[in-house]
């Protein structure tokens, strides 16, 4: 059901998503943060605190996080136009990571930006901002290794649903004007951690 590439209008806003929980605990907080693409200003933040119903299993993280993220997204005042996930899309052993899962369920353009590679091999990209190289798994290009800031570790970008790899990588750089991690997921991480500490 995944549509790996589809023309989309350049979004005015994107929604960054993240979940904070402790391994071994059922408590968790999901955060959704709406960010203006042009200015990177935060327009809306919502959280949802709940309990996970699926154990922590590497490779099946979506089953643990998606119910919480869907609940957070439902709290947004306006429907999202594009989702940016702290995780993987096609760069997944089953080619169906968190970004694919959410994108298909909501039928929204979505992609993932991860801090480390889960599958595949790659050549280290050049050190300048925007440099990239293909992430290849079993002979298939499943993502792109992108340098969002000069001389810092790259991030691992993979499309989830209804967006292409080139657009996903371009948006990742555009959304990372000051930090290595794109602002939407960076803010969602900060928000979910803060809300989790107050549980």
Q: How is this fold's topology laid out?
A:
Elements: E1 13-21, E2 27-36, E3 42-51, H1 61-74, E4 83-85, H2 98-106, E5 110-114, E6 132-137, E7 140-146, E8 155-161, H3 165-174, H4 183-197
Parallel strand pairs: 1-4, 4-5
Antiparallel strand pairs: 1-2, 2-3, 5-8, 6-7, 7-8
Key attributes of the depicted protein:
single chain, 199 residues, alpha+beta, archaeoglobus fulgidus dsm 4304 fold, 8-stranded mixed beta sheet, 4 helices, globular
Q: If you had to describe this structure to a student in words, what would you say it looks like?
A:
The protein is globular and about 45 Å long. Helix 1 (61-74) packs across helix 2 (98-106). The chain has 199 residues and is of the alpha+beta class. The protein has helices spanning 61-74, 98-106, 165-174, 183-197; strands spanning 13-21, 27-36, 42-51, 83-85, 110-114, 132-137, 140-146, 155-161. The chain is built from four helices and eight strands; from the N terminus they run βββαβαββββαα. Strands 3-2-1-4-5-8-7-6 form an eight-stranded mixed sheet, sandwiched between helices. It has a single domain, classed as archaeoglobus fulgidus dsm 4304 fold, CATH 3.30.2170.
